[in-house]
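REQUEST ID: PR-0412
SUBMITTED BY: lab tech R.K.
PRIORITY: routine
TASK: structure prediction, single protein chain
INPUT:
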Amino acid sequence: MARRKKIYEGKAKILYEGPEPGTIVQYFKDDATAFNAEKKAVIEGKGVLNNRLSEFFMTGLGQIGVPNHFIKRLNMREQLVRSVEIVPLEVIVRNYAAGTMSKRLGIEEGTQLPRPIVEYCYKDDSLGDPLVTEEHIAAFGWASQQDMDDILSLALRVNDFLSGVMMAVGIRLVDFKIEVGRVFDGDFHRLIVADEISPDSCRLWDIETGQKLDKDVFRRDLGDLKDAYTEVARRLGVMPKNTPPVTKPTLIN
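STATUS: complete
OUTPUT:
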């Protein structure tokens, strides 16, 4: 097999050149990080779970007409996706107060918000992904006003979809973040959902017990992260309960 060219390695994924122009192979690592990578661990099987869960969510979004970069899953740890130009923003949708919002505004964690609130953070790990306003985004040219309208629409459609899917299996979607990418057709571009959607990028609480089923389990030392992610996958029917995830990562170079 020919050696693949690595394009980028982040905290949770590695990107390789895809087999066709305009494609990328996205590899899900077992690494877990928190607090801007100040806390780190390797959770065996995490990459497998996130690969399968992101496939599930992206496929579901595609079926209801929400454009995204997912093409197909290649194996237990890799998926083929469209190459995009990432808008340098993390788009956060909050349905309940939690995390940094609770700290910033003094709102008790778990408080239902009057409506979904969309926030934007500038993607820069060295700065800690600071919160920014639409005024910053326009002034620095990170996205046009039309882009922002499209990003807001995408974010709220993803929220509607994820909230319904999660509620059906007894999980509350507290908040989540997505990234958005541009795909070009000549001089024109459109925006699509990119990166991943997984428990790494969502806050998920059991509706009955309030048990956390997301990366806060790792952030706050609340138990076994793999068990939490496996429970989400089991409820969604992504992985049968009696099918253990593959635990040994295999990188093909």
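NOTES: The CA atoms of residues 95 and 116 lie 5 Å apart.
REVIEWED BY: pending
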